[in-house]
Amino acid sequence: MKRRTRASVVCEAEGHLLLVRLRDPTTGVESWFPPGGGVEEDERPAETARRETLEETGVAVHVQSHLVLVDRYPFRWDGVDYDCVTHYFAAELEGAFDPDLAPVRDAPYHRGAKWLPSAEGLAELAVNPRIGAAVSRVLGRARRTRWRAQGALEGPAGMLLTLHDHFRVATERLRFMFEREPDVPLGWVGRAFAPIAEMLHHHHHAEEQMLFPFVERRTGSAPEKLVLDHGELTAAIDAVNDALRPETAREDAAAALARFEDVLVDHLDREEGLVVPVLLELAPAEAWALIHA
Q: What domains, with CATH codes, occur in the chain?
């Protein structure tokens, strides 16, 4: 398997995600990808991300090198299997947003670039789950950075982001501890997991009773996917509890914890993308009043 080091850009502007459509020369299958490509000799990954984005889309971006996720995964392209290491960077436009992109001259497999509505773009990227998950993670980090810069630390938006950060950190620490301490008893891990699960149950109940009805009143659309997410998270929590019994193999427990973390972070990112912009339309006091109405 050939090793390939890459860099890609995750750029969102005006609720749209910058993507390129590529056609596999061997299979003919076309898919959407974040703009990016191989890191050249003596080139930093952040430089690659900016260069490739300009070449593939004609869009100049400012790469936020501190907002990066590095992932390693297998990928098959043009009949060749690659061991890919991709640096996914958040990026902002250097100029004004223009929804209409001019055609660019690139490789024959390049089928064009486009600003897709963010939710639609993420759904398209899900065809390649590892790539879609990485883009979603980086997009979530970029959004949280932007919201905090806008003063979203106040009011219900700030509380939601703080709670979500707590869940992310607690879950990540639990997984790291489990991976790095091979002799830790499963019962101890279960006791550490229990308060996370209990807080999530209470948090979800409050959201379904107050926050989600508020979102429906403000947008005219019920956040049905978020409710479905809650059901999927409950199932993932139950799977972790089952896997942390003393007789369970450690690899099964590790898989259950990893699955729970994936489901949780996907949900938190999706919920923030839908709910936080609605909350930020209002002054904090007004938002609180309407949530409790």
A: 2-127 (3.90.79.10), 150-291 (1.20.120.520)
